[in-house]
Every structure is written in structure tokens, then in C-alpha cells.
Design goal:
Elements (H helix, E strand, L loop, with lengths): L15 E3 L2 E3 L3 E5 L8 E9 L2 E7 L10 E6 L8 E3 L2 H11 L2 E6 L26 H6 L2 E9 L2 E8 L2 H10 L8 H10 L3 E7 L1 H7 L7 E6 L4 E2 L2 H4 L6 E9 L4 E3 L3 E4 L5 E2 L7 H15 L4 E9 L13 H6 L10 E4 L2 E3 L9 E9 L8 E5 L6 E2 L1 E6 L8 H25 L3 H7 L20
């Protein structure tokens, strides 16, 4: 998982105001999920008071014998605090919260109607030889070791960064340049180190051909995500998606600005077939304008519903698997010896999706977060409006067609402003169809020879 992994042996349709915000409408037609980016790491943070459940989706590609992660954690972890999760649930959460494209179809202007309102709605082969006496001499303590699922896991503490780095190197870990200084800063904070390798034998028994997410549950006043180790051997900027699930409301970073992504713009309808290119270039342009130094908010929503829905809200079972410990586990008693399913409690879960492109120069600190009381809904949402193509020629239809050219021009300028694309190339891709040319000014004919 880039951004947290030390790789070893390698380096507008506003239709109603409600108490919870505003409602959108339109047909959902496309989403911008993490698959648009090659170096995309995903982390789910479940947070309530001082309790945190962290889920890390690994994007490692290569020989699994070369995979391991080293993650600073704020407290000791017992075996029962570590779990192997389900990648499909993170993919569902990604789809649910992804920026989306919606479309409308203009009504016949001769009927004097409004737009139709539609709510759519690591390694077993690597035999680790440990010398506890040598570790102690280096100030390193192996506090615990576990095999959980397909991972061999160590919980380490250390007194000095040079001793920890020496122990890691002697144990077969190739540490990137600059690691000692970063490790030292975590040691001063009295943080432990969570180290995981793939146990190939166990993975083979389990039958998995990919790495499942690792989950850890702990209690600490620190609400943070360590990203600095992952920048040391990164080959360029990294993409990080953080999905935060809370009871109270939206999550934001405290040591970097959290900025809402531009949203709600009308775009030329040809973007329906180029939404991936649009979103990548739009995000890159916004990162550039913010000097590569902010965290973007892509989605904030009460997980009891969605509008329009890029995917259904997560079920209670999926939320429990992600560590949302405050909702029902489905085991309420329904009478002597019987169980009954409780009413849905998903409304007690608010999801925040943050997206950051980072490197060591622009993000020299780890990410620190806070939970706010803001429950206003927000989504990255982009709109296509298909023009009416009827043949009626009432006065309203004539005025409608005359206004289309101005509308298409506004959409072209919106797209150019968001992405930095050439405005003339955009105009060349717009189908003007039956849109009339603007009338020639009356004064132009006065002295024409």
C-alpha cells in the first residue's frame, strides 16, 4: 500500500431544502473511482471518541516474497485487535462515495414544463531468524508476534532509531534513505511499529491470489494517519483516499487545509464518454491551483441514503466488518431462544471521503484529523443536460433554440476552467445540431457594400 508501505527488497438540480441539507436529482451515469489512478492507496478510518479501527487496502504489485509493511501505531496491539478484512467491502465503499456524473433531458419547451425531477433516487518462505539478545542490545523489543490469515505480524518498540533501523536491516528489511530520522520522530512519540509480511504457506492454504486488507483496532486520543515512511522510497507523487466513518459528522485534516472539490457544474454532453479523462485532469488542475498542499473533500454524506446513488449504501453487516462498532450486530433477542434482526442503524454512520496527492516535499507531516459536527451533505457531482430535439416551432421553442448556443458556450468554458483543456478543442467536440447561428447585429448591414 503506497503511502504507508515500506517495500522490502525493492523499493443542478436543487429541488428541496431539508434539515439535513439539499437534495439532488438526475440519472447517475458514471463514477470516478480509485481505479482511475495507478498509485492509489485506500484507508478506512472508523472513529468514535478515542476508539479507531483502521483498515488498509494494499495495492502492492510484484513478488509477494518482497512485500511487507511497517506502520507506526500509537499503542500496543494484542492479537485480537488485528483482523484480516474483505477487499470487496472497500470497493463497495469506494463506489458509493465516488464523484459522479449525472444527466438530464430537456423537456419540450412548448409544453411549458419544468425539468422532470427524478430522485434516483510476508512470507512463509522467508524463515525469519530472530536473535532476542541482539534485539535487546539494539534497544528493540519484540512485544508480540502473530500469524493472522495470510500475514506474519510483529509488534515492535524501540528506544533509538538507529537501533531499530539496524535491527530491521539485519532482519532482511531494506530501509529507504532517510528512514532513521522519520523512525526517530515516531519513537519520540512513544509509538509502536506494526510490521507485517506475507505468509505464503498460509495464503496458499486460504486460496487467495491477492492481498486482503489488514485491520487494526486501538484506543488513543491521536486521530492520525502516518504517511511519511511511504514517501521515502516513492517514485513520485502518491494518491491516497481516506474513507472516514463516524457517528458525529464530517472529518477534516487539522494540519493541512481541507478543500471541497469543485462540484455542480454543467458540462458538454460528450464528456459522458470521457468522464475518466475529465476527472483525472480536473483533479490534477485543482491540485496545481492549490500548490499541491491541500486535502480534497470528495464526499460527505449520511449513509442512510444517497442521491443520486453511484452504489447502494453499505449494509449493517458490511459496516460491522469495517469496524463500525456502535451499530447493531444483528443479534437482538426476539424471545426465548430466538433472535431477530434489529431496525436499520446505518443512519448513525456519516461517511467522509478525502483525496490527497502527496509527496515528501509538500506533505512533510503525517495527516492529523478531527471529527466535526458538520453533517451537511456534499458530493463531487457533474451534470450533463441533453437538449430537446423536437420539431415543434412555438415561440418558446424558438427562444429555447436561440439560447442553446450560449448554454453550450458556458458549458465549454466551465470544462476548460476546471481542467485547463484548450477551449477551441472543446468547442470542436460539441454537437451544435439544430442550434441556430446567432443573428447578425442590425447595424452590420447599414453600410455594407
Amino acid at each position: 500500500m503506497r503511502g504507508m508501505i515500506v517495500k522490502l527488497f525493492t523499493a443542478t438540480c436543487l429541488i428541496a431544502l431539508t434539515n439535513t441539507g439539499f437534495s439532488f436529482c438526475g440519472f447517475y451515469v458514471a463514477k470516478a473511482d480509485t481505479k482511475l489512478f495507478n498509485k492509489a492507496s485506500q484507508v478506512v478510518l472508523v472513529r468514535d471518541e478515542d476508539r479507531t479501527v483502521l483498515t488498509m487496502a494494499n495495492d502492492f504489485s510484484g513478488d509477494l516474497k518482497e512485500f511487507a509493511i511497517v506502520i507506526p501505531v500509537p499503542t500496543f496491539l494484542e492479537r485480537e485487535q488485528i483482523h484480516i478484512g474483505d477487499k470487496a467491502i472497500i470497493e463497495h465503499l469506494d463506489a458509493y462515495s465516488a464523484p459522479r456524473l449525472v444527466e438530464y433531458f430537456d423537456e419540450d419547451p412548448c409544453r411549458v414544463t419544468r425539468y422532470m425531477e427524478m430522485n434516483m433516487m510476508k512470507s512463509a518462505g522467508a524463515k525469519r531468524q530472530r536473535d532476542d539478545a541482539k534485539a535487546a542490545s539494539l534497544g528493540v523489543t519484540i512485544e508480540a508476534e502473530y500469524t493472522i490469515g495470510e500475514y506474519d505480524i510483529l509488534i515492535l518498540s524501540a528506544k533509538q532509531s538507529d537501533g531499530l533501523q539496524t535491527w530491521l536491516v539485519d532482519s532482511g528489511y531494506k530501509m529507504p534513505k532517510g528512514a532513521e530520522k522519520v523512525l526517530g520522530s515516531y519513537i519520540k512519540q512513544k509509538m509502536r511499529f506494526f510490521v507485517a509480511k506475507v505468509n505464503l504457506t498460509e495464503q496458499s492454504k486460504l486460496g487467495y491470489t491477492f492481498l486482503r486488507p489488514i485491520q487494526v483496532a486501538y484506543e488513543s486520543p491521536k486521530f492520525m494517519l502516518p504517511i511519511r515512511l511511504g514517501t521515502l522510497n516513492a517514485d513520485g507523487a502518491q494518491e491516497l483516499y481516506v474513507y472516514a466513518l463516524t457517528r458525529k459528522g464530517r472529518v477534516e485534516t487539522t494540519n493541512y487545509r481541507t478543500v471541497k472539490l469543485p462540484t455542480g457544474m454543467d458540462l458538454p454532453i460528450y464528456i459522458k464518454n470521457d468522464f475518466g479523462d475529465f476527472y483525472r485532469d480536473m483533479f490534477a488542475e485543482q491540485v496545481k491551483r492549490e500548490n499541491n498542499s491541500v486535502v480534497f473533500l470528495e464526499y460527505a454524506w449520511d449513509m442512510n441514503w444517497c442521491d443520486p446513488c453511484a452504489a447502494d449504501p453499505l449494509s449493517e453487516k458490511e459496516l460491522r466488518e469495517l469496524g463500525v462498532f456502535w451499530i447493531s450486530d444483528g443479534t437482538q433477542k426476539g424471545g426465548p431462544g430466538k433472535l431477530r434482526a434489529p431496525p436499520t442503524a446505518a443512519r448513525d454512520v456519516f461517511v467522509t471521503r478525502l483525496h490527497v496527492r502527496y509527496d515528501a516535499d509538500r506533505f512533510p507531516e503525517d495527516l492529523f484529523f478531527q471529527v466535526t459536527g458538520d453533517r451537511q451533505n456534499f458530493q463531487g457531482r457533474y451534470v450533463l443536460r441533453h437538449p430537446w430535439k423536437g420539431d415543434e416551432d412555438c415561440d418558446e421553442a424558438v427562444r429555447y433554440r436561440e439560447g442553446l448556443r450560449d448554454r453550450f458556450e458556458r458549458e465549454a468554458k466551465q470544462l476548460a476552467n476546471l481542467t485547463g483543456w484548450d477551449i477551441n478543442e472543446i468547442r470542436g467536440k460539441i454537437d451544435f445540431g439544430r442550434v441556430p447561428e446567432p443573428p447578425e447585429p442590425w447595424w452590420r448591414k447599414l453600410w455594407r457594400r
